[in-house]
Prior knowledge:
By secondary structure, this protein is an alpha/beta fold. It has one domain: Rossmann fold (3-Layer(aba) Sandwich). The protein contains nine helices and eight strands. It has helices spanning about 15-20, 20-30, 50-65, 85-100, 115-130, 180-185, 190-200, 205-220, 240-245, and strands at about 5-10, 35-40, 70-75, 105, 150-155, 170-175, 225-230, 250. Strands 3-2-1-4-5-7-6-8 form an eight-stranded mixed β-sheet, sandwiched between helices. Strand 4, helix 5 and strand 5 (about 150-155) form a beta-alpha-beta unit. Helix 4 (about 85-100) crosses helix 5. It is globular.
Amino acid sequence: xxxxxxxxxxxxxxxxxxxxxxxxxxxxxxxxxxxxxxxxxxxxxxxxxxxxxxxxxxxxxxxxxxxxxxxxxxxxxxxxxxxxxxxxxxxxxxxxxxxxxxxxxxxxxxxxxxxxxxxxxxxxxxxxxxxxxxxxxxxxxxxxxxxxxxxxxxxxxxxxxxxxxxxxxxxxxxxxxxxxxxxxxxxxxxxxxxxxxxxxxxxxxxxxxxxxxxxxxxxxxxxxxxxxxxxxxxxxxxxxxxxxxxxxxxxx
Length: 252
């Protein structure tokens, strides 16, 4: 029997809530063990707190959000803006993947608007690839096979850094879990003022709802979350997400 374990690897607390929480909630409702990890505690996402204060606040918000679907939260304690594709950081990701032993991994995509997101996606890609390489030694967790199925979440506003729309490979109908998704995102209360000041974005949950409505419309449903599967050599070629969620997954 393959494990029913899903892992989301984001850069910051609230990345999963924006882009894959509805799907994670669907999996949790079907008996999957769900883990939500972030590379950083979001230590620069503030205009009013110190690095230490906002890190504590945001990790507590992430724990509360994850608990709404019975998930576990993990932080790899990198610094905002300074997530590096280097050996120490990659070892953290490999060890996380080996500890959790997921069947499905969700991560950020290479088309996204900022370096923390794009670097996180590359780290997650290699972390999955290295899960079974025995000559990469991690302290607590042993290598395992097979390579997890890897899915890239939408970029912010569903467009690349040049403003070109991103066409997904599939859209998951999250109508039955959308209210849970809103509740999870609302746990990240510290971010509304930050996004208003730095990004010019108010109505924190409305920005997420706009994207969910857009993707839902493309699939002929109310609310959707979009993904593209990593189908390069040595990664799983079967669509495990579609196999689990059935007609809730609309292949494009």
